[in-house]
Automatic annotation (TrEMBL):
Subunit structure: The 26S proteasome consists of a 20S proteasome core and two 19S regulatory subunits. The 20S proteasome core is composed of 28 subunits that are arranged in four stacked rings, resulting in a barrel-shaped structure. The two end rings are each formed by seven alpha subunits, and the two central rings are each formed by seven beta subunits. The catalytic chamber with the active sites is on the inside of the barrel.
Compartmental location: Cytoplasm; Nucleus
Entry protein name: Proteasome subunit beta
Known function: Non-catalytic component of the proteasome.
PANTHER family reported for this sequence: METALLOPROTEASE TLDD, PROTEASOME SUBUNIT BETA
Pfam families: Proteasome
GO cellular component, one term: nucleus
KW Cytoplasm (keyword) present: yes
Family according to the record: Belongs to the peptidase T1B family.
Source species of the chain: Dracunculus medinensis (Guinea worm)
SUPFAM superfamilies: N-terminal nucleophile aminohydrolases (Ntn hydrolases)
Keywords for this protein: Cytoplasm, Nucleus, Proteasome
Length: 228
């Protein structure tokens, strides 16, 4: 019999904020390139995004090892799907539903996967592809949205992102907004790196851009002394 005390109950190496924004013709998703051991920068230059197929990207916050296990599981589900139809692919809504069920089942067994997952992609709707963002947390709570920031970004960034999206929903503006989001997160979250990845999912497929870095404006440091 499995005792609760023996269940893996604390994440070890973790990633922090994920930001995803749906714009007019696609979805942009941003993560920094750091996995931390507690507050220590353990693994640098690590991509926290996983390209599932030409229409879907999954990004994670939370435990690194659990997400590696999930990557393997998603690959196996893809192989099972293609065994029945070689042309079939997981859609973002299909994958989001599968991960929601999985996270909820693990939570009910008192052995959760310690991740917040963001599924971004292009979903076929009314004979055309439309942007889709789905979020599921370690308790199996799931929803779809037009924009999301997870981790500490849920407190720091969501309001800013929503306000900016009301004014403009174009691709270049969205990418600029993601860079601004990373900069604000970098100022306030000690587990955020200044190196980051941005992926674009649109009708042309998935494009993972080259890693970028920011420097930031540290003249404001003396005024921001209330954060750890």
């Amino acid at each position: 019999m499995l005792l609760v005390s023996n269940i893996y109950s604390n994440p070890t190496c973790t990633g922090t904020t994920v930001v995803a924004i749906a714009y007019k013709d696609g979805v942009a998703i941003m993560t920094d390139r750091l996995v931390s051991y507690g507050k220590m920068a353990r693994y640098r230059h690590f991509c926290r995004q996983y390209r599932v197929n030409s229409r879907v990207v999954v990004a994670f916050g939370g435990d690194h090892a659990d997400f590696q296990w999930l990557q393997n599981l998603i690959e196996r589900q893809t192989f099972r799907l293609k065994a029945h139809d070689p042309t079939a692919e997981l859609s973002p809504r299909m994958l989001h539903g599968y991960l929601t069920s999985l996270m909820y089942i693990r939570r009910t067994k008192l052995n959760p996967l310690w991740n917040i997952l963001v599924v971004a992609g292009m979903q076929m709707q009314n004979d055309q592809f439309e942007p889709f963002i789905g979020v599921v947390n370690q308790r199996g709570v799931a929803y779809s949205t037009k924009s999301v920031a997870t981790g500490l970004g849920a407190w720091l960034l969501n309001e800013m992102v929503e306000n900016e999206l009301r004014q403009n929903g174009e691709k270049l503006t969205t990418i600029s907004l993601l860079r601004k989001s990373l900069e604000l997160s970098f100022y306030s979250d000690c587990t955020t790196s200044n190196e980051f990845d941005i992926s674009i999912v649109d009708n042309e497929g998935v494009k993972l851009r080259k890693p970028e870095t920011i420097v930031g404006n540290w003249d404001i440091a003396e005024y921001r002394c209330d954060y750890d």
